[in-house]
Amino acid sequence: MGIVEIAEDSVEDFLGLMDVDAAENIGREFFRGIGVTGKDGEAIAALIWELKHLEDDDRATESRIHFLASGGKEADKLMLAEYTRLAQEDDVTRSYYEMCGERAETAAKVLKSCGFSMRETEGQMVSMDLGGLSSHKVVSLGNVPDYIFSLDKLMVRQFHKGVTNCLFHSRRELLEDVDSLPMSWYESGVSCCCETDERINGFLLVHETPSGKLRAEMLTAHGPDYRENLMLMMRFSIRKALEKYPPETEVLVERHDDHVRALITYMAPGIKGMGAYCGERKEGRVAL
Amino acid sequence: MNYPVEIKISLLSDVVAVVLMIAILIMTHRNRWRGNIESKVFKGLVWNVILDAVFSAASYGMRYQTFPAAESIEITSKFLLEVVSFTLGFFWLMFVDVMLFHSPDHLRRKFKVALIPVVIAIVLLTVNLFTGILYTFDSDLVYSGTWLNGIFEGFQFAYFILAFYVLLDFEKKHGKLHSLNVKPFLIPFLCGMFVTVFLHCTVLALGCAVGIISLFLSLHKRIRFISDENGFYNSEYLEYLKFLAEQGRFSFGSAIVFEDINCSGEMGILLRNELPDGAELIHVSGGEYLMITGLSKRSRLKMLCELVGDAVAEFNAEHKNNMIALKTKFRIRRGEEGLAGFLEELKAQSREED
Fold this sequence. Notes:
The structure holds two protein chains of two kinds. By secondary structure, chain A is of the alpha+beta class. Chain A has helices at about 20-25, 75-90, 105-115, 130-135, 135-140, 155-170, 225-245, 260-265, and strands at about 1-5, 30-35, 45-50, 60-70, 90-100, 120, 125-130, 150, 190-195, 200-210, 215-220, 250-255, 275-280. Chain A is built from eight helices and 13 strands. In chain A, the strands form two sheets. Chain A has a seven-stranded mixed β-sheet, with helices on one face. In chain A, strand 9 (about 190-195) and strand 10 form a beta hairpin. The longest helix of chain A is centred in the last third of the chain and has 19 residues, at about 225-245. By secondary structure, chain B is an alpha+beta fold. Chain B has two domains: about 5-225, Rhopdopsin 7-helix transmembrane proteins, CATH 1.20.1070; about 235-354, Alpha-Beta Plaits, CATH 3.30.70. Chain B is built from twelve helices and six strands. Chain B has helices at about 5-25, 35-60, 70-100, 105-115, 115-130, 145-175, 185-200, 205-225, 235-245, 265-275, 300-320, 340-354, and strands at about 135, 145, 255-260, 280-285, 290-295, 325-330. Chain B has a four-stranded antiparallel β-sheet, sandwiched between helices. Chain B has a two-stranded antiparallel ribbon with strand order 1-2. In chain B, strand 4 (about 280-285) and strand 5 (about 290-295) form a beta hairpin. In chain B, helix 3 (about 70-100) packs antiparallel against helix 5. The interface between A and B is medium-sized, with 23 and 28 residues.
């Protein structure tokens, strides 16, 4: 058995093990992947994680494990040992995970055997269907002013300028690599921005995953009318999404802070997060 | 014409108010007071007071006059005075809004809604000309208001109350705002109103004028940090920030230096267009600009530098005779490093790089 780095040129070899939505993150700036291969080079196990706060001088680096495909006790042990080594190289102080779906329980058990805590809980990720969202009064009633418009009306440089403007003012956690993700990562007909005072000061960026889900990657606005603009952007995006996608299309939103949580509660009262397995481990000691 | 004492005092106070406001207009003619939305709204407030004083003087001046046009002048002046009194509150609300949010688009959107009471007031005042529902004039052209006029005039204060609410709401969300102090205006204004209402001596325009002078002096404390030549913060502002940082009243995460080695003169405008809104840019000297930010993420600072770099490349492609030679460097604050020491280290870092 051998350990290999899963990179853009080798991810295809592991597609049989990974779900496509996890696999597409390979190549993003802060995502890392390793896999275990058998003696014939066949993929046996895989692990994908994301480094958080790597470039923050005032915050400790953390690692979030997004995906684990178990390959048996021996392969898992090898893989997690390599992960631990790489995490230490990157000065990771804490690793954590939150996983949903079929393989989540198996993955959580593997991680537990390697020193991670494990609990079953309501996850941060919420899944809604597009048709359900469209019936909300925020979406169904009212107009969208012309200072809210879709991403395809922006040039690349305007987009980057807008992202910089939003990042400069945002006090909240946003995507780690939002400043390096290209404009093409986002669904341009559905994603939108808000322009006031000749500056882009709000974005609702939506990414279409390979499996056909719509994932809200960034929803931010600043300025005196930011609350109103957030609602207007949602109205715009959901209406545009309905023109392009069937109503049963799954929309994923991660409730990573109280603002998003409050927004989701407002848009879909009573909705619960997807069932997930979560846990964490302090790094800096060998846990095997 | 031998006017009563109260009318003489009112007329004198109106003249003084006009003189004071003209002085303010002259003083705000300097470069750093021009062009931005804040100074435009401030000047709107000043002009409002001038018109208030002029129409007030014209209205009172016509009392007890007997020449043929006196009645028309008084009625017209009173009408215009009532309109201008209403718009004073409107301009105050707009001023508070623009000083808090610095957003012309936001102001434009709120302006349309905020103007509605003014429009209603003008309609009511026009109706009054034919019906006397708000006020009338007797044979000596002495004004007398109806009970409805009391309610009408009360609505003028709705703007001031709304402005106060907007300010309180802002401070609740963002903390105390040091750049806007409303007391310098409100105290003289309220004194003028008190004298007008309870001592029947109309000095409201003078009260507003004194309020505007106090407000001007209060704003001037901040405006002195803006260079008259180019409208950027000057090095005096940097010293002020160091002072605030020592007092623990200013925190920062990093600083970026943008330098145009060619001193083409275009760097400042380019930076103003490219950098995020609200970025405080200090013109240090020549082609050198300093931006102190709250950011501590290396990738974000690099992104800012790249943004400016791309803009410079685009500019240079179109202006081959006056190209910018850009140099950028940034430094992230370590621990509780003070601002003065931090900037020294940044200078030392750039000397090493050179």
